[in-house]
Amino acid sequence: MLYLTDPDELGSLLTDHPRFRADQLREWLYRHPVLTTDEMTNLPAEMRTGLADRLWPFTVEVDRSTDRGLTRKWLFRAPDGVAYEAVLMGYPRRTTLCVSSQAGCALGCTFCATGQFGFDRHLEAGEIVAQVAYANAVLRAGGMEGVPARVTNVVFMGMGEPLANYDRVREAIRRLVEVMGMSARSITVSTVGVVPGMRRLATEPWAVNLAVSLHAADDGLRSRLVPLNRRYPLAEVEEAAEAFFQAKRRRISIEWTLIDGVNDTEDQALGLARIALRLRAHVNLIPLNPTPLTDDRPSPSRQVTRFAEWLRDEGVNVTVRDTRGRGIDAACGQLRVRTGR
Ligand code: SF4
After folding, report:
1. Is beta strand 83-90 parallel, antiparallel or unpaired with respect to 119-122?
2. Ligand 1: which of 84, 109, 286, 332 to mutate, judged by most atoms within 8 Å of the beta carbon?
3. pTM above threshold 0.85
4. What separation in angstroms does the CA of 146 have from each of 22, 139, 142?
């Protein structure tokens, strides 16, 4: 599979061809991705045919769009049978791709469809990068109108905990920045608080953005919602986030999924405000995308508004995320839940 090969070692797959063919192939894979090798017009026909089945390390099992075509979601199936998802959201000036870093997830957050399915395996760096390349190929082919013709932002907020798959995610970021030419600033790594990974990320050469999924402002509630909190409690997560901010000078964002009657109270808002102010962080509120496997419900919109107001009254910068893709199960793991695999 072409994306599973280190971009500098593509020549090893092309031993019957002159060396410059590997450079041309790398350009197609990373700089100008296309949906089929047929479109790699400067490669000889027999080479294109020979590579045709090796272009994508997955088959596209589900391809759905909604929001007038501006949200598109794919369920990819790897040759070994595992499935993972990516969601593309288009806006007039940017296109954000939410990528998966693992097939499934071992961390078992109670409100998350992926967590309810358990863990299949880590995704390889090439499987992560191929999600971005595939979305780029779709955009280049005119797959979404009125938006930039390439992925401008990548967020590691799909299936899996990226910092639990550190080395492969690191390599994926390296390829996105150094081979594909994306700006590190347009890449966001989201974590539920894998403290050693947060600390390592602060030492990497790329100033990516860090998003910390808190969901609760005290250890009691957080340990219930995010079991990893028992291992890395809030104070440690906050310290690691502060260290990242000090190292990279990139504003931290805090993600908060609002669950009706669970973490949408004034107490939680005030606790969150204290943390956000200490970290100089921006807060993103995300009304829960309900999944078939739990009874949790999203906070009603008036409670979302109230929660945001409590934060603003304390001086916190808050955004209520739009709920793109509800009609196509766009929250992480939902497509897989729906297809039953
Ligand atoms: S929220 Fe993230 S870390 Fe938690 S179970 Fe879901 S995918 Fe895993």
Report:
1. unpaired
2. 109
3. yes
4. 34, 10, 9
Report which ligand 1 atom has the smallest distance to the Cα of 332. Answer: 7
Pick the CATH number of 58-339 from 3.30.379.10, 3.20.20.70, 2.30.29.220, 3.30.70.1400: 3.20.20.70
The Cα–Cα gap between 90 and 85 comes to 17
Pocket of ligand 1 (CB under 6 A): 105, 107-109, 112, 114-115, 159-161, 192, 332
For the chain, residues classed under CATH 3.20.20.70 are 58-339
CA of 65 to the centre of ligand 1 (A): 24
CA dist 331 and 329 (Å) reads: 6
Q: 1-55: which CATH topology? A: DNA polymerase; domain 1 (1.10.150)
> How would you write the pLDDT of the chain (341 residues) with one tens digit per residue?
999 999 999 999 998 899 999 999 999 999 999 999 999 999 999 999 999 999 999 999 999 999 999 999 999 999 999 999 999 999 999 999 999 999 999 999 999 988 888 999 999 999 999 999 999 999 999 989 999 999 999 999 999 999 999 999 999 999 999 999 999 999 999 999 999 999 999 999 999 999 999 999 999 999 999 999 999 999 999 999 999 999 999 999 999 999 999 999 999 999 999 999 999 999 999 999 887 778 899 999 999 999 999 999 999 999 998 777 666 665 555 555 544 44
* Residues acting as catalytic residues: 85, 332
